[in-house]
Design goal:
about 80 residues, mainly alpha, about 65% helix, globular
Length: about 80
């Protein structure tokens, strides 16, 4: 019997949309992340990185977009550490 993984939820879709929009500009302002998601930027980019690295549903992103967003996550997490 095959186990189906749950689809990406609406919050994860909102995170991906925000990340795609802001990745070329450094990932977006921390204040916007807090207001939109109720997360610190460290929490946001940690969750986003985990989603991109471990959820097969995000394979729908183009390889270039996926790489850009992951690079943005890693850079922000490094800078804010």
């Amino acid at each position: 019997m095959q186990t189906l993984r749950p689809a990406i939820d609406s919050e994860q879709n909102r995170m991906l949309d925000f990340a795609r929009l802001w990745a070329p500009h450094g990932g977006g302002p921390s204040e916007d992340i807090m207001v939109r998601f109720g997360l610190t930027s460290t929490e946001f980019f940690t969750r986003l990185q985990s989603l991109l690295e471990h959820d097969e549903q995000t394979e729908l992103l183009t390889p270039g977009t996926r790489a850009l967003v992951l690079a943005c996550c890693r850079r922000r997490l490094w800078v804010e550490a």
